[in-house]
Amino acid sequence: KNEVEQSPQNLTAQEGEFITINCSYSVGISALHWLQQHPGGGIVSLFMLSSGKKKHGRLIATINIQEKHSSLHITASHPRDSAVYICAVEKTSYDKVIFGPGTSLSVIP
Amino acid sequence: EPEVTQTPSHQVTQMGQEVILRCVPISNHLYFYWYRQILGQKVEFLVSFYNNEISEKSEIFDDQFSVERPDGSNFTLKIRSTKLEDSAMYFCASRGTGVGYTFGSGTRLTVV
Asked: Does A45 touch chain B (CB under 8 A)?
């Protein structure tokens, strides 16, 4: 069993839809990261979370440490949000990170 | 916005040759990392580096691999005697205290 799992694997949405991507993990963590990988391959860090909720623009990330679960929400989705979204967990601060398999999002105009 | 710079963007090498992938992290960051992503697969951790030494490495990071910070600004990944299965995108990243990662744009390594 993978230590970090994401759902769904693939997601197609109409522009303007509210999107949720889920991440569950099975190990103790010091932090959880949400990353965005563009079609060209570049990776951008969206959020680093150790508790609660963070918001940046149309993106919201939440984490429930007890349930070992995190969600990434995108409000008012736009075609430029099309990318792979990756959940990654940090077991020990600043050291090894375990990456999830990614969720491929396509937003259609 | 500060950037992590990786060079080269593409590298093609013969099997058995040595390659050096280079990275310039953000200047005030203290933590440095190498990751790789084989085409179509998920990103994998290779190594973390702090205070001029390896702080953690994965099972992938065997004697074939080494990292160095030779001059206080560059951070290099050396792969000795490359194999076909080393073909991948290699990402460098750096972090400051209490903040998330900044990734470089990657080096696509092709071993032929």
From this structure: yes
